[in-house]
Amino acid sequence: MTELVVRAPGRVNLIGEHTDYNDGFVLPAAIDRELRISYRRTDDRRVVLTRLDEDETLAFDLDAIGPSGGSWIDYPQGVARELAVEGIAMTGLRGTISSTLPISSGLSSSAALEVASAWALSAQHPPPIDPMALAKACQRAENRYVGVRSGLMDQFAVVFGRPDAALLLDCRALLHEGVRLPLERARLVICDSRAPRDLASSAYNTRRSECEDVVRTLQAAGEPVAALRDVDGPMLERHAHHLDPIGIRRARHVVRENERVRAVVEALRKGDLLGVGRLFAASHRSLRDLYEVSSPELDALVTLAEAVPGMFASRMTGAGFGGCTINLVAPEAVDRFAADVHAGYLARTGLDADIQAVSLATGAGMA
């Protein structure tokens, strides 16, 4: 049988953190760090995959998908279950998974595995399903099977990535548009804190529940809202006395973060990198102080970045609890930025940060 290779990129989120599951706005971009599945189709219904980074082989049967088991094979299994619901024909396979995406770093390695699995499992290429429906099927796999109540942003970015633009997504209407970045003036640089991070067992699901509690309180007070997307600052403050201290903090972050997404898009279109920097800084403070998903390691990376000449903007990216920061850095300053931040971070934390300039990338497909 012919060997096939499917690739799926990671993603970085420029701004719009924890807004996707609140029906808000996000600005992700697919990047040139990716996951690949090299495989041969088989005549049976058995899916056997080997992760090269862990030298581990796991398997499942397309006709007998059992409950999730808490391992990485849950992602392809969950996707297979959702594809079956969609009526998409699938084939057995024997394959290997390789990746240049650091695992559990906030760059959507899980979404990349989900989308790549959908392509590999499908009997047709591309999978015979609308791209947005494919992204939503992969999201359902993560929500229902893996158990992480994530929004749509990660899977959307992995499916729709563009090599020439970030993607502004309205997570309620599912409308999206490209936003070009001034890459001749600012490179995207990722700083991986290499601090432990596990969303499935973290407070991620708790944050979503806290937001939903705020919405229910506002509804009980007579406000016509379906999600925090529908809430503005004045409405929130009118009802602040009804909300517990945690709920008001979470809601203030989401309401203001939605405003920041649109402000960053406007600043990028004007080429106002200093304005982008101010908005990134406000986002990071909000994620640290109001949403409480930053970490000492992420805070250290941002503080160190802010001291480097030629750095325009820095903030944590992804769900938090460890992971990465995203930075916009003048091309001529990238080497100094990497050296200074690496040395300072090692001195402060004892951890060896992985710092890389990345480029934009195309969404998932055959390699």
Structure description:
The protein is of the alpha+beta class. It has two domains: 3-181, Ribosomal Protein S5, domain 2; 187-358, Alpha-Beta Plaits (2-Layer Sandwich). The protein contains ten helices and 13 strands. It has helices at residues 74-85, 109-121, 131-146, 153-160, 204-220, 233-238, 245-270, 273-289, 296-306, 334-349; strands spanning 3-13, 25-26, 28-42, 46-51, 56-61, 92-99, 166-170, 175-179, 187-192, 311-317, 324-329, 354-358, 365-366. It has a six-stranded mixed beta sheet with strand order 5-4-6-3-1-13, covered by helices on one side. A four-stranded antiparallel beta sheet has the order 10-11-9-12. A hairpin with a 6-residue loop joins β10 (311-317) and β11 (324-329). The longest helix has 26 residues, at 245-270. The two termini are 17 Å apart. The model has no long low-confidence stretch (mean pLDDT 96).
Blueprint of the fold:
Elements: E1 3-13, E2 25-26, E3 28-42, E4 46-51, E5 56-61, H1 74-85, E6 92-99, H2 109-121, H3 131-146, H4 153-160, E7 166-170, E8 175-179, E9 187-192, H5 204-220, H6 233-238, H7 245-270, H8 273-289, H9 296-306, E10 311-317, E11 324-329, H10 334-349, E12 354-358, E13 365-366
Parallel strand pairs: 4-6
Antiparallel strand pairs: 1-3, 1-13, 2-7, 3-6, 4-5, 7-8, 9-11, 9-12, 10-11
Helix pairs in contact: 1-2, 1-3, 2-3, 2-4, 3-4, 5-7, 7-8, 9-10
